[in-house]
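debug: dumping io for the single-chain case to check the tokenizer round-trip. Nothing else runs in this session.
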Amino acid sequence: MEVCPHCGAPLKGRIVSEVEGSPGKKQKKWHEKTSVTLCIAAALVIITFGFIHIITGVVSPYGLPFDVVLKDSFGYRETFVNADKITALPYLAAKKKYPIGCRVLQRENYMESGTVFETRTVRHLQMDTNKWQAEFEQTIGKPQPQWQDQWRDRLATLSGVEGVQAESQIPPTDPEDTGAYNDRGITLAKNAQYESAIAEFSRAITKDPTFAEAYYNRALVYVATGQLGAAISDFTKVVEITPALTEGYTQRGLLHVALSQYDQAIADFTKVLELEPARAEMYLSRSLAFFAKGQYDKAWEDVHRIQALGLSVPAEFLESLRAASGQ
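debug: decoded output
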């Protein structure tokens, strides 16, 4: 036991230096010696992340599968930017969810300008939407709407007869019969004489401004000729005249989707579901509109409603929704 050289008292809890024979400090272990260095290094790394973006899903000018670029300002938001994930979304949704990432990708020329990107993604989204909608409706065996059935049946009845000119099959005009104008319009439309068909439907409407079928038929011709704004106006008249007829809302909603007017489309699909809660294809249409808007939680809600009806949602749509929503 070590004792004090002056008084002879035991030196409890004290360590005497082997070199000098006097009290000394306990030697530090290796991890204690390096902890300060590690903390400083970690702090430098963390601070560095505040100045850079790490972009994945791209090929850098140096041929690397990622790129490191400086931030416009110090911060830690969107330090890691996944180009594949951002460009897979509609532009409005991408810009809302990843505003800094979009700017960085555009600044570094990894992504087109907003207008070009939106045009491309809208085109692809519409193609995918049409495919998913058709796949789902084929799966559930959705019947054609009543007026579309009438349109197709009447065109089939008035189909061309060999050796007879189409114009000769057009019903005669009865100035007192609005139905006759409507019939002529259908026949003209069948023969691809769209301007004349529109004129006949317009005469029927002039004769009877509450003739909803003529508005509906004219709207279909407007769609065929690419006049979507005019078609929306006619479908609006249809739902004003016959508010309980869901096909007016359905067709108008689909046109709103085609024009990327998703809020209006969602309102129309919601109206259809209020009138016909079992219309499963409308849940999918509304889910697709929510998806295009970037409202993924609501898109999932409609997916779950479809599944609750015992129906399968197109697998590709589910995959895209999972990727976009991170689920």
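debug: round-trip ok. Residues 143-242 form a domain with the Serine Threonine Protein Phosphatase 5, Tetratricopeptide repeat fold (CATH 1.25.40.10).
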